[in-house]
């Protein structure tokens, strides 16, 4: 079942209750991006979950796929390396027209990061950027110290986007309550020193609906035309 959320008339918000196969999501985004670029469709944010799978971004290294037969593996056109998607993870696919905002990929990624940082803060999690590391990170001092003397950190959100005619697709995944052990089949984003976490792992009981509400509440703080 797909619910269309009507709160923001100029951006279509879609929410899928059932697990969406990855190829189906790619087909939808490819078609929607073409329609947005041609002026035939509105922009779109799609909130969904995938069944367990691994995706390989354009920078993925073969050796970072540790168990190739555990879950399906999909090569994809987004930036980044290997990542995991599965139930309990909120995927937000972001199909926005940067021709209406700013034709600047670095700016756009920064706005996505800010949006997710604000979302996490509303739910009691301090997520932070890190120079040289993609995604958003949570300090875990109880786990010990990294080589640089700072507390170890775990990733709570991954970001990977692609542009076509300055219309974005792919997006962000936020770990709400996924099976974190499923990440063990890859080196997530090529980083071995730090791990992954989730709201559940941090002792919080938020569900996907809570995350969706926080995402919607903060959207226009970052993506006004």
Would you write up a description of this structure?
Residues 4-8 have low confidence and may be disordered. The chain has three helices and twelve strands; from the N terminus they run ββαβββββαβββββα. The strands form two sheets. Strands 1, 2, 3, 7, 8, 9, 10, 11 and 12 form a nine-stranded mixed sheet that branches. A three-stranded mixed sheet has the order 5-4-6, with no helix packed on it. The longest helix is centred in the middle third of the chain and has 18 residues, at 105-122. 20% of the residues lie in helices and 30% in strands. Helix 2 (105-122) packs across helix 3 (208-218).
Supply database-style keywords.
225 residues; alpha+beta; three-stranded mixed sheet; 3 helices
The Rg value, from CA coordinates, equals 17 Å
Q: In percent, how much strand structure appears in the residues?
A: 25-35%
Specify the structural class.
alpha+beta
Separation of the first and last Cα atoms: 30 Å
Number of helices: 3
The proportion of residues forming helix, as a percent range, comes to: 10-25%
Total number of β-strand segments? 12
Weakly predicted, low-confidence segments: 4-8
pLDDT average, as an integer?
A: 91
H/E element order: EEHEEEEEHEEEEEH
Largest sheet: 9 strands, mixed
Shape: globular
């Amino acid at each position: 079942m797909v619910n269309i959320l009507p709160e923001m008339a100029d951006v279509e918000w879609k929410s899928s209750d059932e697990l969406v196969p990855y190829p189906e999501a790619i087909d939808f985004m490819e078609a929607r991006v073409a329609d947005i670029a041609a002026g035939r469709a509105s922009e779109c944010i799609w909130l969904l979950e995938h069944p367990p799978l691994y995706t390989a971004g354009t920078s993925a290294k073969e050796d970072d796929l540790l168990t190739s037969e555990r879950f399906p593996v999909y090569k994809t056109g987004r930036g980044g390396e290997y990542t995991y998607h599965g139930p309990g993870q909120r995927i937000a696919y972001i199909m926005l027209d940067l021709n209406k905002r700013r034709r600047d990929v670095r700016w756009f990624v920064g706005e996505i990061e800010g949006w997710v940082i604000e979302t996490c803060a509303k739910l009691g999690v301090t997520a932070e950027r890190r120079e040289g590391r993609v995604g958003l990170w949570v300090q875990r001092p109880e786990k010990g110290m990294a080589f640089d003397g700072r507390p170890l950190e775990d990733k709570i959100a991954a970001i990977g986007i692609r542009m076509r005619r300055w219309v974005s697709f792919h997006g962000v995944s936020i770990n709400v309550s996924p099976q974190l052990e499923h990440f063990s089949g890859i080196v997530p984003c090529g980083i071995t020193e730090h791990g992954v976490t989730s709201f559940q792992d941090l002792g919080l009981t938020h569900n996907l609906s809570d995350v969706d509400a926080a995402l919607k509440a903060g959207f226009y703080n970052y993506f006004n035309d």
